[in-house]
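Supplementary material to the annual report.
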Amino acid sequence: DTAVSQTPKYLVTQMGNDKSIKCEQNLGHDTMYWYKQDSKKFLKIMFSYNNKELIINETVPNRFSPKSPDKAHLNLHINSLELGDSAVYFCASSLGGGNTGELFFGEGSRLTVL
Amino acid sequence: QKEVEQNSGPLSVPEGAIASLNCTYSDRGSQSFFWYRQYSGKSPELIMFIYSNGDKEDGRFTAQLNKASQYVSLLIRDSQPSDSATYLCAVTRYSSASKIIFGSGTRLSIRP
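Predicted assembly:
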């Protein structure tokens, strides 16, 4: 069983379109994250949810909207896609508390905007 | 100044030698320190964490932390070709325990 799973793994789309990425974890963790990794491998935190509550919202355009229907799921919807949105988006989870930095990552969703 | 800085490399080390990876951080309030390994095209995986000053050993890996110098390092002994990957340093702050900040990573290449 995959601990943190993301779908889809690949998205290729045109500028201006809207797309969603879904994430699910079966580890029983309380905290989930979205990270963006650009072509230079820099991993930047975007959002974090703890038990369905948004706790971190970095400086991310309003076109990005996360949703957590329950603590095992965290989705990311992106409106009006731009070329600069091309990246790999990683979902991750952690126990939270003192184990916050021990992240378990999904396989990533590679988004290409043409 | 970036919050977490790493030399991007590539760092080339002969097989069997010690690979030394370094990381500095800017926030003195940083509390916990992590090393992740990321193979090309894969997701990062945690290999070491350290919370207190000093050394922490786990198999061939040793993490070293010096909070006074705001410096954390990872040593890999008896380097193997399978250690070739990008190593990401990450820190958390007491003020925002859920916010894990990553460095840009050091690419390590072990040559046979």
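The first strand of chain A starts at residue 4 and ends at 7.
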